[in-house]
Amino acid sequence: MSEANASNAQAETVQWKSDPYKGNDINPGTVDGRKIFEKKTQGLPEESRLDLTKSNASEIHQFFKSRSENLGQSILIPVEFNSDGSVKSSKNLLNQYHSISEQDMIRRAHNRWSTQIDPSDPIPTGRPFTLRDIDPGSNDDDKKVFFDRVGANIVRELIKNCLSSRGYLDLLQNKKDFTFSKGSDSEYDGPTMLFFLIQKIDPSTNVGLDSILETLGATKLGDYKNDVDQMITRMTDDYNILKDNNAAPRNIRKLLLTALKSGPNHDFNSFIQRIEDDVDSGIGQHKNISVDDLITASRTKYNNMEKKNTWNQVDPRDAQMMALTTELKQLKERRNQYQPHDKTKVKQSDPQEIVPGTSVQKWRTKYDGDAKTVDGKKWYWCRLHKLEGKWDGLYVGHTEENHKGKGKATTFTPKEKTDTASKTSQSQLQLNSRLKQVMCTNFCLSEEDVDKIFDEASSEN
Fold it and tell me: What is the DSSP secondary structure assignment for residue 294, as one 8-state letter?
């Protein structure tokens, strides 16, 4: 009897179930069975389906975990066997895929679609694999295989209804390893497809459990666009994988606290810091907080701040630092624009165009008419500006008639110039010192923060 006829023979079978959508014994050949099959394989709307990329790993994992009840026994993969060939232990494909090999998957698929493979026998090398006929209507063993195949097909359809067309085609690059054929009939083994899907989107699959532990320790809110809920979900998933594989870290609470404090919101960070202080000191109401309670408290705080539109507000302390940084930069720019000898704005120039030992451009020391325009600015020749050994007259921003203290030349000897520069440097140091004092006292900034602001301001000039 063909499988199609066997399916029809099953149509009259009465099965007693309190929930028709639970269990593995579904016969899509019946009207009710088909409805249940369609219900269990319902996926994402076509416009929301996902490409098979690492960036979609979290969403794809969540999709299948949210439908784990629909996957049934087909994702339990035997990995250890007793001496008589019976199964000693199995692993869950969704949670324990790190402990499952490709050979484990192919062996399980063979027992479903082809001939049984003894645990000690090698995997057949031919591709695609051979599909065998079954007669579930008259053979009880084949009936079990039939329902097992239905479960595998539910996994296959969920994959198809989760991935975009391109994502599904990408997965089919491995189809030789999950295809069973006989003549024109061909079947894809859903669980093996899911195994290769996870291999493609989760690089840690190939590295091992250590990489997941490293990821947990390095998790930052910025990796999840400062979405606390999304970060906690991923960290919980990673922790559960480690737990299922007997590799769970004992310091998961500490890892969570560190990750939760890595965001930009000062109020939220202070909330988490108070919890951590209680944990570290062993006193206070949060000293024995459990991981589950920490997750609940963090999510509640985050969700409330989102509703009140306070999550993305700039921290007042950060705003103060940004404002102070801006003002400091402007102050330094103004200071650098003026020279002590004539208070005339000077532009940055090539060192070869500057009078040695000064910051005055050479062209300003050479008479070329009573007035001239350079870079859109009007300059006037004033003979009353003198510097011994450097210039005897200078282009400045005023006429000779308007020179302050007319008749008295503005001269600087090298010693006076050095003294003036020294006094200017001392005044700058005093101003910087005073600014630091005010910023530390009035704005409650640390000396490290203030030094950082000064460094950033200096780097711009």
Answer: H
Query: What is the rounded CA–CA span in Å between residue 136 and residue 242?
Result: 40
**pLDDT beyond 80 at 406:** no
CA 200/CA 178 separation, integer angstroms: 15
Same domain, 126 and 245: no
- The more confident residue out of 194 and 376 is 194
Q: What share of the chain is helix, strand, coil (3-state, %, to 5)?
A: 55, 10, 35
Q: What is the DSSP string of 22-68?
A: SSS---TTSHHHHHHHHHHT----GGG-B-S-GGGHHHHHHHHHTTH
What pLDDT was estimated at residue 118?
A: 82
In a domain, 168, yes or no: yes
- Integer Cα distance of 385 and 228 in angstroms: 66
Under DSSP, is residue 341 helix (H, G, I), strand (E, B) or coil?
coil
**Residue 313 lies inside a defined structural domain of this protein:** no
pTM given for the model: 0.49
Other CB atoms within a 10 A radius of the CB of residue 350 amount to: 7
Number of domains in the chain: 3
